[in-house]
Amino acid sequence: xxxxxxxxxxxxxxxxxxxxxxxxxxxxxxxxxxxxxxxxxxxxxxxxxxxxxxxxxxxxxxxxxxxxxxxxxxxxxxxxxxxxxxxxxxxxxxxxxxxxxxxxxxxxxxxxxxxxxxxxxxxxxxxxxxxxxxxxxxxxxxxxxxxxxxxxxxxxxxxxxxx
Length: 163
What we know:
- Conjugation of reduced glutathione to a wide number of exogenous and endogenous hydrophobic electrophiles.
- The structure is a single chain.
- The protein is mainly alpha-helical.
- It is built from 5 helices and no strands.
- Helix 2 runs parallel beside helix 4.
- The longest helix is centred in the first third of the chain and has 31 residues, at 22-52.
- The model has no long low-confidence stretch (mean pLDDT 88).
C-alpha cells in the first residue's frame, strides 16, 4: 500500500469524479471498454445460437426440423462467460469508483484499470471464444478479482479511522 501515497496537492481544489481528474477519465475509458465487451457477449451468444441452430423459444425457430433446446455446450459456455462478467465486472465498477474517491496515485490507479480490463478480455477469449486449458482462465479471472480486493483494502484502510 506504500505505492498508494495520498497526493494532496493535485486534487485539493477539485472534485475527484470529474473530467478534470485523469484517474477518473482513465476509469471511464476502461469501464466503457468493459461495457462494450459485455454487450458483445450477447451478440456472441446469438452468433452461437445461429451457428449451431439452438434456440430457446418456439418463436425463434427460424429453421425447419429443429426443436427448442436449452443445453447446447457451445451456447452455454458463452452464457457462463457472460454471467461470470456480470458477477465480477459489476462489483469491480462499484469498487473502482469508490477507490477513485480516495484520490489514488494516477499511475497506480490507471495501471490497475488497464490490467483489469485486459484480464477480463483475455478471460473471455480463453473461456468463450477459443477455450484453452487451465490455468489461463483462472489467471485472467484472478487478476481482476485481486485488483478489486486491492482497491477494497485501500479504501478500507483509508476510511478505517472514520468508523
